[in-house]
Amino acid sequence: MTTSSAPVPPAPSAKKQSSTFITIFIFLFAMFILFDQDLRFGLGQLIGYALDPLIGFGGSSPVLTLMLAGIVMTGLTTLLRHFFTDYVAQAQSQTVVSAFNKELRQARLENNLYKIKKLSEQQNQILQKSMEMSTTQMKLMPVMMLIIIPIFAWVSVFIAGLPPGTAIVNVPWAEAVDLNASTVLPHWILLYSLISIPFAQLLNRTLRYYSFRKKLQELEAGA
């Protein structure tokens, strides 16, 4: 008597294994830099040879330096994500998943066993397509970390090395804020995030708008 065995999943390709190894290596490297002060300081000094003359201003305008550093970092990472993201396919995937979940919830509320069975059979396929979009974004993370970590390390070294009194700045909601002091997080990180996050959102929405507009123009031209 013969017994059928379950199909053996194919072994991961060498290319996929190499990509996974690189991703893990870069994440570990990023963690070392974030938590190792000496390594972060050394990397910050190295990047400073390029950024100090460009946006350091001799330490005289730390807020402007933070603003420009945030724009450079978020601009590069947002553009990188833009060129490797199919916004139309992403929107279609989100719409399909949302509609599928709605149908499945409705079938369960109605206790429609036949419909639940049919939808459950399609669930893996729907989730797989959604995961493919997420996987593409995850593959970009190591490259983005190679942009974020060096700039972040340089800003940390730059702020810590400001002359006495220069790190005290005025912001719209407070006066005499010490960038090297902390309130939950160092003040320079809070200010840096306040500048970079809105800029990243604005740039991302602008790029999405032009991507969808270009796609609509192509569809209209084809019609």
Explain what this protein looks like in three dimensions:
The protein contains 6 helices and 4 strands. It has helices spanning 14-35, 37-56, 62-83, 87-109, 113-160, 187-222, and strands at residues 168-171, 174-178, 182-183, 185-186. The chain has a two-stranded antiparallel sheet. It has a two-stranded antiparallel sheet with strand order 3-4. The radius of gyration is 24 Å and the shape is elongated. The relative contact order is 0.13.
Order of helices and strands: HHHHHEEEEH
The secondary structure category is mainly alpha
**Low-pLDDT segments, ≥5 res:** 1-12
Give the strand order, joined by hyphens, for the main sheet. Answer: 1-2
Number of domains: 1
Mean pLDDT: 80
Radius of gyration over all CA atoms, rounded: 24 Å
Question: Outline, from the CA principal axes?
Answer: elongated
| Extended strand count | 4
Major sheet size, sense and barrel closure: 2 strands, antiparallel
User: How many helices in DSSP terms?
Assistant: 6
**Helix content percent band:** over 70%
Lay out the secondary structure:
Layout: H1 14-35, H2 37-56, H3 62-83, H4 87-109, H5 113-160, E1 168-171, E2 174-178, E3 182-183, E4 185-186, H6 187-222
Antiparallel strand pairs: 1-2, 3-4
Keywords:
mainly alpha, elongated, 223 residues, 6 helices, single chain
